[in-house]
Amino acid sequence: MTLLPLLVVFGLGTLSAILTISRRNPLHSAFYLILTLLSVATSFLFLKADFLAMVQVILYAGAIMVLIIFVLLLTAVEEVKKIPLFHRQTPLALLISGGLIAEIVYTLLQRRILAVEGPPVHSMEALGKMLFKEYGFPFELASILLLVSLVATVVIAKKEGPS
Amino acid sequence: MTAQSLYLAFGATLFCLGVMGAVVRRNMIVVLMSIELMLNGVNVTFVTFSYFLNNLVGQIFAVFVITVAACEAAVGLAILIALFRLKPTVQVDEINLLKW
């Protein structure tokens, strides 16, 4: 019976992911994607990853989705009703990825549990210490990556020529 | 059916749905959203193993994955804006300037 909340959250997330990739209006896709991201954040909470759950809500469901919706509204000039929604090879793609999902889920449900016993290490304090001590260099690299992508975004999206 | 296999199945399902959306859809912004879906599936798997193997490295990798996802979304949308200025469409198969 303890699996019931998990099943509800995962069912909601999977359903809204399917709606994300199948809605005609991209704005509806974006809103269903927010629902999927929130259910992923809920599963992080189940897994005692509090910091990641908060980052997921603030950064993914907040910042990135706001950016995507802004760009959607900036580029929405076409008549979305007329044109076909999917590529030509849709049946083949559906067959292959549906088969992949079925295979992965079947295999995972067969496997026995994989776990390590011991005192739980999942505190936000331990995560912060590990991130700043052992993983300090990758952390700095990530900050450089953020800076570079910030500058690149401004340069790419800027208007060409003398203004 | 255990909790662990449910988490892993959820991550794998999100990843495969993201692949499906990125391959099938014609709208470029929906393709970007599908890539976010794939990254989220990977994150669910990382955090699941971090919890069950009692090891924090999975969560740290998830932090880095979220960082890279933010950069990717920003740069991808900037490229989309620049491309849209050149040719006002967001359909991927109408943008074939580089196709010989």
**CA-to-CA gap between the ends of chain B?**
51 Å
Order of helices and strands of chain B: HHH
Number of helices of chain A: 6
CATH class category of chain B: Mainly Alpha
Q: Which ranges of chain B are low-confidence, i.e. pLDDT below 50, for 5 or more consecutive residues?
A: none
Please, what is the CATH homologous superfamily of the largest domain in chain A? NADH-ubiquinone/plastoquinone oxidoreductase chain 6, subunit NuoJ
Question: What would you note in describing this structure?
Answer:
The complex is a heterodimer of chains A (163) and B (100). Chain A is mostly helical and 163 residues long. Chain A has helices at 3-22, 26-46, 50-74, 90-110, 124-132, 136-157. Chain A folds into two domains: 1-93, Four Helix Bundle (Hemerythrin (Met), subunit A) (Up-down Bundle); 123-163. The longest helix of chain A is centred in the middle third of the chain and has 25 residues, at 50-74. Chain A is globular and about 60 Å long. Chain B has a single domain, classed as Helix Hairpins (Orthogonal Bundle), CATH 1.10.287.3510. In chain B, 77% of the residues lie in helices and 0% in strands. Chain B has three helices and no strands. In chain B, helix 2 packs antiparallel against helix 3. Chain B is elongated and about 50 Å long. Chain B starts with a helix and ends in a 14-residue tail after the last helix. Classes of the chains: A mainly alpha (163), B mainly alpha (100). Chains A and B meet through helix 1, helix 2, helix 3, helix 4 and helix 5 of A and helix 1, helix 2 and helix 3 of B.
